[in-house]
Design a protein that fits this description.
Blueprint (H helix, E strand, L loop, with lengths): L11 E8 L15 H5 L29 E10 L3 E2 L3 E4 L2 E4 L3 E2 L3 E12 L4 E8 L3 E5 L12 E16 L4 E20 L2 E3 L4 E3 L2 E24 L2 E9 L3 E9 L2 E2 L5 E3 L1
Parallel strand pairs: 1-15
Antiparallel strand pairs: 2-7, 3-6, 4-5, 7-8, 8-10, 9-10, 10-11, 11-14, 12-13, 14-15, 14-16, 16-17, 16-18
């Protein structure tokens, strides 16, 4: 891939990212913007500019390309979460619960395209995810009033532009159109009472299936000290998304309420 400044020696790249505190909200943040970045723990990812996914970390790095670039990838996320040695107290007494595997495997695809317009301006678009999590207990798990299903997903459409100020400085910025969806289920599972030989049917406590759209933005700059050293600085604003949909709590309809997602 051609770039305006190709490093021929060992690259020493430093990147500093200032992120909104909201970006870490609820522990749902994903670092799955690119497979190449994941392979190097995203070190210097906002300034290396070895493929188009660099725009996800720092939009200014797009100015380092002098030819169109396309990047596609899929990252598999294998979540290993096991609940062990748990007990649950119900009106019928306290019981030890069996070990439960609540994780699973999910996939986070991404695609980016960068297109230089001239020597100064470069534009790009990307589609990827910044947030997501899923845990699910089995239907018969006695403590599903606290476990149940939690499934949060997001898709980020990034539209960015970069400007090459001179041989050293580049500036960039972009708009993030974020779609988020969430499913939450909390319930008392079907329970058999052996003493009186009756079965209590499942009772839903919380049932939410909602989604929404929010707008964010990102800004960045890259400074090339010399052929062997680059520095990057980026900022991303992550908005709170108001999700709407089918929602009920303790059998009461709360559809008119808004669910805030990170």
């Amino acid at each position: 891939m051609n770039k305006k400044r190709l490093f021929t020696k060992t690259l020493v790249a430093a990147a500093v990212t200032i992120a909104s505190q909201q970006a870490m909200a609820a522990g749902f943040q994903l670092n799955a913007q690119s497979a190449t970045g994941l392979g190097r723990a995203f070190a210097g990812d906002g300034v290396i500019a070895d493929n188009a996914s660099t725009m996800a970390k720092n939009p200014a790095s797009m100015a380092l390309f002098d030819a169109p670039a396309l990047s596609l990838g899929v990252i598999a996320i294998d979540t290993d979460v096991k609940v062990k040695n748990a007990t649950y107290t119900s009106p019928f007494g306290t019981n030890a619960l069996p070990d439960e595997q609540i994780g699973g495997t999910s996939f986070a695809p991404n695609i980016y395209y960068i297109h230089p317009l001239n020597e100064k301006w470069t534009v790009g678009a990307g589609l990827y995810s910044n947030f997501g999590t899923k845990t699910e207990f089995s239907d018969k798990y006695a403590a599903n009033a606290f476990g149940g299903l939690t499934d949060v997903k997001s898709v980020n459409l990034a539209l960015s532009a970069a400007f090459r100020v001179n041989d050293h400085w580049s500036l960039g910025g972009g708009l993030d159109v974020i779609y988020g969806s969430g499913k939450l289920e909390r319930y008392l599972p079907e329970t058999k009472v052996p003493v009186v030989d009756i079965t209590i049917p499942r009772k839903d406590l919380l049932n939410i299936d909602a989604d929404g759209v929010a707008l964010g933005f990102n800004l960045g700059t890259v400074y090339e000290l010399n052929e062997d050293n680059r520095f990057g600085l980026s900022y991303r604003y992550s908005p709170t998304l108001d999700a709407k949909g089918d929602m009920s709590y303790a059998a009461a309809d709360i559809t008119n309420h808004k669910l805030k997602m990170p």
